[in-house]
Amino acid sequence: MTDSDVVPEQAAAAFGVTHHENVIGTPKILSDGGPETIRFIDQDGHRIRNEVNLPYDKYVDALTEEDGRRLYRDMALIRRFDAEGTALQRQGELGLWPGLLGQEAAQVGIGRAMRPQDYAFPSYREHGVAWCRDVDPVNLLGMFRGVNNGGWDPNEKNFHLYTIVIGNQALHAVGYAMGVQRDGAVGTGDPDRDTAVVTFFGDGATSQGDINESFVFAAVNQSPIVFFCQNNQWAISEPNERQTRIPLYQRARGFGFPGVRVDGNDVLATYAVSMHALDEARSGQGPFLIEAYTYRMGAHTTSDDPTKYRDSAELDIWRERDPLLRLKSFLLSLHETEQAFFDEVDREADELAARIRTACQEMPDPPHSQMFDRVYVEPHAGLEKERDEFVAYQAGFEGEGN
Amino acid sequence: MTTTASSTGTRLTLAKGITAGLRRAMENDPKVLVMGEDVGRLGGVFRVTEGLQKDFGEDRVIDTPLAESGIVGTAIGLALRGYRPVVEIQFDGFVYPAFDHITSQVAKMYARSLGHVTLPMVIRIPCGGGIGAVEHHSESNESYFLHSAGLRVVACSNAEDSYWMIQQAVATDDPVIFFEPKRRYHDKMVVDTSASAAPRGLYEAVVARPGEHVTVACYGPMVKTCLQAAEAAGQEGTSIEVVDLRGLNPLDTETLFASVRKTGRLVVVHEASQFLGFGAEISAQVTQECFYHLEAPVLRVTGYSTPYPASKLEELFLPDLDRVLDGVDRALAY
Ligand SMILES: Cc1ncc(C[n+]2csc(CCOP(=O)(O)OP(=O)(O)O)c2C)c(N)n1
Ligand SMILES: [Mg+2]
């Protein structure tokens, strides 16, 4: 059922992996995460019951087939939204787009496990989490179109601004969780009050001091936080073995809190494990690390050309693990789900794509003086002077051509 | 337009000038290492280190873990062990995790050790805006480093300089912050790569275009803008002398002061925000040393004192030809 962790010699050679003395360890790029990976549906859509996933069984068993279809719909819609982002970049409507293709199950699983009072601190690729938090996807386009540097109100849906500087957001999340503790919003047993914080980051990010420091702070404070690492195998051109010599989830142990690896392409698994981790956090059991083992099926961003550093054979393997296909086969193997449902989702996706496209094209350019606005909360004479000079200078052009 | 490049040689982009310079530095000295994120197999996100790992191996061209503090911190250790690391910071806005090491350790190690150890390392930073990038990819943060004694800071503006200056920086026994204007990476120029020595010193300012009425001092990405402004002004009868500073710390005051004494007017142009930007230091020094030659106060044409704006607004933030000419007109109006 699971692929072997061991990469055959020829395959390693095909990947240009030289067994140089300094590159110790077998490349795991073809691996599906190994036997420790929590998984509920296999590649062919069959339900798995085993010792590894047993502790999380109850969360999956509590799901109805209708819930499964909802998860599918979420994944299909954000996949379509994401494809539209890439297309809009190609057509010059966006400056850049970081795609999430392949990571839908990872994001939707935790996104749907979160409660309204929980708070998310994303990196820059969490379009699927934003979707689950009910953030209008149009809002996500602004910074990639260059009209703002974030723009949405993080407190409206408890979804913080995208953070581009790798790792920064994890410390903000821990600090927020420390605030939650001080507010007494953890461990009360009130499901509407107890709050967890989730922060998102990649495999590459785990090398940053900020991520490691956030682990320390969270552990020391026993803060209600879930660290959600999407291990998509690549940090731009650098594979996992440039960042770590042990599976990332095992890092948690050294910091003093639990960590697990979940199949990031199995939405039932990411949902179930997230439910558990969030429950732990909310009830005062402290931090939890989830490594969602997945794959970046597209380029790092639209600026990147992955053919420069990875073999397409790798993508072929991961295509077979596609999170949407997998859930679809599973649903079709149950009783009530018909092809008509998937057709309907496709139609809805077309509508979403059209709405996104129009909204993007119609997004107004920011007012010229926006860069002077809201730099400081309180008045600032020096800045006002520069703004006045700017306005006067720009006004000089407006008369031109009349 | 004057150009200092020889007409025979190799046609190189500014980016490939650095690649060629690094290659030569690595050939000449086995202690030279290149390290950073994605610099190996990919050759860097701007392809500046392209081909180097293939030719010099993974021991000398290191794809580091994603951690800038770690990169610069370990580069310090490598330098202590006798290596000459050339560190690539992927984008200007990502140098800050390494800032502690750069200001607290790199800048001070020589003094702290009373001269017993040197840190001959180069920290390359693609800088500046104008490429329509998202946040943190367009910053001009030279002031932080200029303000930290112990660091040498240079900025190249064309392929000939990028080719020679990187080699000179690598050969320097002090740490050097090496700014590369990313929006000029693809600008081409013929460079005589067969020459045995650089045409000028690493910190020498150069009169990129001689003129009579006003001096415009600039560096890095703004040199091209200022040359274009000078060309446009020349057609209207205003003669601008463009000084490409090249070395920011140390600053070649001799060349700069001579130009200001000749023209009597100075406009400093940079992308960085005005408040405590490099223009402030230049203005103070020129006012002090050239006071009796000045016909006008030293003026600055710079980015505004705001966070770098979203890319749709960056053209309004960055000095352009018109804003340089406006500054020149204001200087001439005194
Ligand atoms: C501090 C910092 N350094 C470098 C970068 C440039 N950069 C952007 S994304 C990236 C790779 C991130 O990889 P990973 O953490 O695995 O996340 P992924 O993009 O794969 O989701 C790098 C190096 C950055 N944004 N911030
Ligand atoms: Mg990654």
From the structure above, extract its key features.
heterodimer, A: 402 residues, alpha/beta, Rossmann fold, five-stranded parallel β-sheet, two-stranded antiparallel ribbon, 15 helices, 8% strand, disordered N terminus, B: 334 residues, 2 domains, seven-stranded mixed β-sheet, five-stranded mixed β-sheet, 14 strands, globular, binds thiamine diphosphate, binds magnesium ion
How is this structure best described in words?
The complex is a heterodimer of chains A (402) and B (334). Chain A has helices spanning 9-14, 57-61, 65-90, 104-113, 127-132, 137-145, 154-157, 168-182, 209-221, 251-255, 267-282, 312-319, 323-333, 339-361, 381-398; strands spanning 119-121, 197-202, 225-231, 234-235, 238-239, 259-263, 288-293. In chain A, strand 4 (234-235) and strand 5 (238-239) form a beta hairpin. Chain A is built from 15 helices and seven strands. Chain A has 402 residues and is of the alpha/beta class. Chain A has one domain: Rossmann fold (3-Layer(aba) Sandwich), CATH 3.40.50.970. In chain A, the strands form two sheets. A five-stranded parallel sheet of chain A has the order 1-2-3-7-6, sandwiched between helices. A two-stranded antiparallel sheet of chain A has the order 4-5. In chain B, the strands form three sheets. A seven-stranded mixed sheet of chain B has the order 3-2-4-5-7-6-12, sandwiched between helices. Chain B has a five-stranded mixed sheet with strand order 9-11-10-13-14, with helices on both faces. In chain B, strands 1-8 form a two-stranded antiparallel sheet. The longest helix of chain B has 15 residues, at 14-28. Chain B is built from twelve helices and 14 strands. Chain B folds into two domains: 4-191, Thiamin diphosphate (ThDP)-binding fold, Pyr/PP domains (Rossmann fold, 3-Layer(aba) Sandwich); 206-332, Rossmann fold. Chain B is an alpha/beta fold and 334 residues long. In chain B, helix 1 (14-28) runs parallel beside helix 7 and helix 3 (68-80) runs parallel beside helix 4 (99-106). The chains are: A alpha/beta (402), B alpha/beta (334). The interface between A and B is large, with 48 and 41 residues. Bound molecules: thiamine diphosphate (TPP) and magnesium ion. Thiamine diphosphate sits between chains A (125, 164-166, 201-205, 232, 234-236, 296, 300) and B (37, 66, 68, 90, 94, 97).
